[in-house]
# Entry
Amino acid sequence: MQWLGRVGLLARGGVYAIVGVLALKLAIGDGGKTTSQQGALKTLALQPNGKALLIAMAVGLAAYAIWRFASAWTGKAEGFKERATAVVSGLAYAFLCVTAVQIVIGAGSSGPGADAITGGVFDYEYGRYAVGAVGAGIVVEGIAQMVHGLRRKFVEKSRTEQMHATTEKAFRVVGVAGYCARGVVFGLIGAFLIKAAVEFDADQAVALDGALAEVVDATAGPFLLGAVAVGFIAFALYCVAEARYRAL
# Structure
């Protein structure tokens, strides 16, 4: 299980690195685009030896999902909130793994977008309120991500005693930057879900790529997108360090 966790963390970092690099290139005017985790996998498939890279990524994503499920099942994730988070994370990365496999075998990978899913929920009684509640929950999670980063809570699960002093300082910096960037994007996704519920307009709902696109359109958009992109790249580096030093 420890090896599954470490391999999975590397794959997780790889996804964030691709999203971050593409967003950074867009921010500095060097091509690039805003994309989601699924889009990152499609981008990987277009690279030289893309199929082999994507197979390796699929294995890593499967490892991460299994590790998260096992953490919830065995009690490694302590407390209800941490176990629930582990299950949700496992489901998300299991979906990404399926997406990677679909791309490899040429079965397509385009699932319903955030607006289509939201519109489907609106068809149910009280669906509007459910969407608003989910949006509020994601906003709260975004705030929690930022607090987690700023308070450096992530250090508690890492074997910092094995790090060189310089490595530990860098680890703290990329961890704070990464969690803050995730918090900002989570907050945007949640806010647009709330907006969709209030206006009863499913088109207002966005996923990761849509949230990054909203950052681009804001005042000083390229600067803000660049900051978030650097944060995502920092989170990718944090995941790599976590794969080496996390106490599993």
In short: The chain has one domain: 2-245. The two ends are 8 Å apart (CA to CA). The chain has nine helices and no strands. Residues 2-245 form one domain.
